[in-house]
Amino acid sequence: MRVSSEEFQHIPLRVHRFLADVPLHDVWAFQLQQNATKKTFGDFRALLSSRQMQTISPVVRLLFNVRAALGRFFRWDNHSQERLAMSYIHRLTDDDRKRSIREPGGVTVEPFRLIYEFENEALEEAINATVHAFSLMTMQPVAGGHIVYWAIYVKKISQWTPVYMALINPFRRLLVYPALIRKVERLWNQY
Prior knowledge:
8 helices, alpha+beta, six-stranded antiparallel sheet, globular, 191 residues
């Protein structure tokens, strides 16, 4: 379910300062039940592997394949040095780098690269010709389990960014995110 940005902004997270100049596009939240074998944010992040994301649903896989084909055709996804130089990794402080559990800059799930992963907060970015997007996930303890907040930030990088986002928003909000959330909830509860 989508939640208000105000609810999300009240959680004490590094991202609020780190991306203070980037608009928050939307925030989703979902609950994970208490699980005897999975308790940490690291356990949750392990469920988000590339292999698992390929098995979300046939419809979502088709949407990803169509987007990838369009990206190749229009050359949206070329990783030029100019685009890599736009990365927000340079904003990391020495303390951020020390706190990060994994090395910043590595590919997580294509096309996202890790900026940082702390004990309960992970920020990734994707940069292409249409958008500079950020995905933040955090897992917060609540009675009976955890709530995962998933925030999407979008920085305009061309006149096409608002058009592109308007075109993909219905697919993201109605198909992709609900399917991904259901998949993660199923995986979490399987053990």
